[in-house]
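Record type: monomer structure entry
Structure origin: computed from sequence
Chain ID: A
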Amino acid sequence: MNKKQNQIFRLSVLALMCALCYIGFQFFRIDIPLGGSSTAVHFGNIFCVLAALILGGVPGGLAGAIGMGLADLMNPLYVTSAPQTMILKMGIGCITGFVAYRIGHINTITDSKQLTKWTILSAIAGMGFNVIADPVVSYFYKNLVLGIPSSSAKIFAAWTAGTTLFNAVVSVIIASALYLALRKATAHQSLSKRLFK
């Protein structure tokens, strides 16, 4: 496969991951209304982490930012949160990909225990960032950008922290399992070299 075909293939995988991020948030979500705002338990982050594990940090972040950003823009409950979502999902992808490829070198690991270890650590790093950053960014975004009073923004941030932690645990488990299953299923095929960064 030549370079142009490989780029087209990777772009197609990125588009698929954007769509999965969108679907994971838009259709696999439980809303938790908070007065004039809302938070949610959802599956979108799973595919953001998975995209970063497969394609690398920036493409993984783009998948989450585009997919879940569009989902926010198309939903009246979340439309004002779209900029926040795009920034945070880009962060998840970049950190997951950085740990996976720059520190863990998961693209060259052949030992299954090491691959499992670095896959899980990478997912934890990306979602750990989100667990810390999401409530903090949520507070300042709601208070400074949207003009919500500080006391209300603190309540929203506290609820966001709880749902973000739940989403993070689910995302680490499912994204890691999916990535490891994909690596195993394609281990002896040329698809493996084309699919994984």
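Annotation 1: The longest strand covers residues 29-34.
Annotation 2: The chain is about 75% helix and 5% strand.
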